[in-house]
Amino acid sequence: MSIWKLVVRSLFYYGRLNVALMVGVALTAAILSGSLVVGDSVKESLRRNAKARIEGIVYALVGGDRYFSQTLADRLQDHASLQGVVAAPVIQVLGTVATPDGNYRANGVQVMGVDDRFWSLSRGGNPISAAVNGDEWLAVNEALAERLGVKPGDTIVVRLEIPGELSKDAPLSGEADETVSLRMKIDVVIGVANLGAYSLKAEQVPTANVFVSLGFLQQ
Q: In a 3-state reduction of DSSP, which class is residue 218?
């Protein structure tokens, strides 16, 4: 018997086993290939989300429930400008945003006071200067605009807690529910290219952001 006849007879004799083996190998290869594709897709999505949240930001100094003086950023800027780096002061607090009729409401919204230095960190440039004049302007990001169903020209009510001299967790720190309400019209809806998705939290859910002038929020 020649070697070829032996091979052919072996294939027929073990045909069912060979077919099962080939199907198993093909199925395993498909599963592994799919896992690699999905893994690469998830990794790329995470990278894009992280880039959208902190694009252009290298270091962030967070004070928690304490506040740094704005002069700290000014002093840092004096040193950083020699290396082409921007030090941007930001007031970042949590608040709630609602439509005037109360039909739509968003909790846990980041309310941020920023100036031109913050926008210089985005690849899209400053979206405020071309749209409004003065310090009394308000912008929301796309995620919040979609959640509330609002657009530029619509009015929203922003409520945030007034910071105190002491931490709210400290004894005798005073009232914990002292709030201020801002009823303002939306001037601009900020896109991802303009740091509209800014957040220091690593989360997949788009963060709802409200931007106002740094000087206005300080007052």
A: helix
